[in-house]
Design brief:
By secondary structure, this protein is an alpha/beta fold. The protein has a single domain, classed as NAD(P)-binding Rossmann-like Domain (Rossmann fold), CATH 3.40.50.720. Helices cover 42% and strands 15% of the residues. It is built from 9 helices and 8 strands. The protein has an 8-stranded mixed sheet, sandwiched between helices. Strand 2, helix 2 and strand 3 form a beta-alpha-beta unit. The radius of gyration is 21 Å and the shape is globular.
Amino acid sequence: MGEFCKDRTVIITGAGGGLGRAYALALGAEGANVVVNDINKNTASETVKVIKEAGGNAIVNLGDITDYDSAFDIVESAIDEFGDLHAVVNNAGNNRDRMFTSLSEEDWDLVIKVHLKGHFCISSHAAKYWRQQSKEGKNVNARIINTSSGAGLQGSVGQTNYSAAKGGILTLTLNQSAELGRYGITANAVAPQGRTGMTEEVFADMMKVPEDGSFDKFDPANVSPLICYLVSEKSSHVNGHCFESFGGKLSIAQGWKTGPVKDKGERYDVKEIGQVIAELEKITPPAQKVYGS
């Protein structure tokens, strides 16, 4: 057993499979107490079983991350079982991929609910718990780790609902990092690429395990070292970033920022706007292309 995250209690949503499972196994192996939250009891139980057989500590939790009261119970169960809470890894997700003109209200609501509201609910209760600890004079060293995506950073054709939710998660992370630091809480996002239940069928050929034994860049476990580091006490200075992680690649995303400015010093006439935009387009670096365009 490792000790990089020794005695750190962490809630991981969607930890029954894919990336969440990989995070849970790695954190358990590094000495963390892991709350494996998932809607699938069988897969969650299997994840817990593997952690325990390896000598780690973990429990199953089937609470609904999209229900605010249920999210409170998830946080409370972690504290009741392990005596404290140190990190939340918001990983659970779903998808309802459609082109925009085929997207139904239900498609929109379900994806926004699981991703964006799901990230809010547990984090809200955890942050209130940590804020109270801070007010009581305790040394808080807590983490919120959110899951975004390349779709949230640059969009993805056929995934308007998913892209909007993941983009919202990035802004949520920025606000959390700015507001919660005073209480000893950091907030970062991760945009991972790996083989999961949402991707392995759609990208089956691209993501298949190499038959020649070469490096499996789509193995979700490749993202786990980053998650373990961010959960650990050693990452207290890291705040407000979105990390892109794929295979052996790691980077910090460069988000929206004010570009070159044309300042007339007074109100523009509507007839001038077209020329000003043309000049700005020439001197402003273009955004990355929307995936699939």
